[in-house]
Amino acid sequence: MEKSRDHGSYDTRRTKLRIGELAARTGVSVRSLRYYEQQRLLTSSRSTGGQRNYTKNAIERVGYIRRMFAAGLTSRTIADLLPCVDYPGEDTADSAAERMLRERDRLSEHIAELVRTRDSLDELIATNRAYRTAL
User: Fold this and answer.
1) In angstroms, rounded to a whole number, what is the distance separating the alpha carbons of residues 125 and 4?
2) Rounded mean pLDDT for each run of 10 residues along the chain, 135 residues in total
3) Which residues sit opposite 45 in a β-bridge?
4) Distance (Å, whole) CA 103 – CA 97
5) What is the pTM of this model?
6) Residue 97: left (phi > 0), alpha (psi -120 to 50), or beta?
7) According to the model, what pLDDT value does residue 5 have?
């Protein structure tokens, strides 16, 4: 990471970011950035020494990826949604909206299943308490 000599901050004149600098600027671990690349969510070029180099656009892309993971989306779903970011237009926006609605439905079903599971556990707890009181 190149640091400015006068302020100790990153050199903003560089057009490429190394993986450690991207991690520091986005709050994402180096390991996560490598995972994003493995899943084809993020791309980098390589220096002659084999180091990863990212464009400054990667900062915004990593933020977007993080928001999608936080929304409960899988890396595969995120990969399916990224064309909307890369090639904005009506078709990709509509496709992304449909996919996100399907994911929302999937999450709603999972939440309903978790509520049923919790209700079953509540019944077991009530049975246990009744048994304990009868002792």
Assistant:
1) 62
2) 41 76 96 96 91 93 95 93 89 92 94 98 97 92
3) 53
4) 10
5) 0.73
6) alpha
7) 37
C-alpha 44: how far from chain center: 18
Q: What is the pLDDT of residue 13?
A: 53
Residue 85 burial class via C-beta count within 10 angstroms: exposed 0-12, middle 13-18, buried 19 and up: middle
Q: How far is CA 100 from CA 41, 46, 74, 95, 104, in A?
A: 17, 33, 11, 9, 6
Whether 32 and 39 have beta carbons less than 8 Å apart is answered as no
Closest CA to 41 of 10, 16, 14, 64: 64
- Distances, alpha carbon 132 to alpha carbons 7, 8, 118, in Å: 68, 65, 21
Q: Residue 113: which residues within 8 A CB-CB, separation 6 or more?
A: none
Which of 7, 10, 8 shows the shortest CA–CA distance to 20?
A: 10
